[in-house]
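Ticket #4471: structure output looks truncated?

Reporter: J.K.
Steps to reproduce: submitted the chain below (239 residues) through the standard prediction queue, then opened the result file.
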Amino acid sequence: MKESHSDADVAGIFEKCWKELLKEYETRRLFNVYCSEADIQLHFASKLLGSLRFPTCVYVEFPISFDVGDFMISRMNLGKPRRKRKKGEGIIADIVIMGGHEIIPSIFAEIKYGPLIWNYLPILQAVEGKLTKERKEDVKEALLKTIERLRSWEEYGPSQSVVYDHLKNVDKIIRLIKDFEEWGNGPVYAYYCVINEIYPKLGQLMEDELHKHNAPDEIRLRFHHNSVRSWLEDQLSKL
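Returned output as attached by the reporter:
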């Protein structure tokens, strides 16, 4: 049987796969490939599976109890943690990387996806001259309204509740990491992987919030703003 990756290897592969997904994102987004967080999760997990060497495993929608003892007992006795628990007793991690014979995860990650809800096909058709004059004018009018709305949202910025929603349970996750590391032999990383198309300042606000909580280095924010407004303005200039 092949040996599992080291913790450093796993973290490096995780980072590499996330960067690959982001590199593909902008082009694929125009084809409505990503309609939800689950789609981002699927494509990311696929990249991880293609890069990690068995028996290092990739899990999705993986329950993690804030009670590390309970988590480890379930893992040892059942092979998997209990899913049914009271609200606030744990999280359902979007992505978990863990050796198949290990009890403690190397990485667990939360994926947050905030897309602008829009069908890009009419815009592309208008730019390519495939729409009637009347339909093209409708597209231009919709573009102008959407661009203005995005400008105002960017200027105002996300509310504090939006920031908090992207960092749910951060205090408990900080404690969870420390507890895992007390039981294990190496670092455990918790990632917040965020793609947002509306608020370019969200990433900095999240960083500020993590700093307020004295988050350790094992908690890592990977924020990507895909500027839909810039793309829409570029398309409008072509009409």
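Triage note (M.O.): checked the attachment and the full token line is present. The beta strands are 56-65, 90-99, 107-114, 189-196, 219-225.
Status: closed, working as intended.
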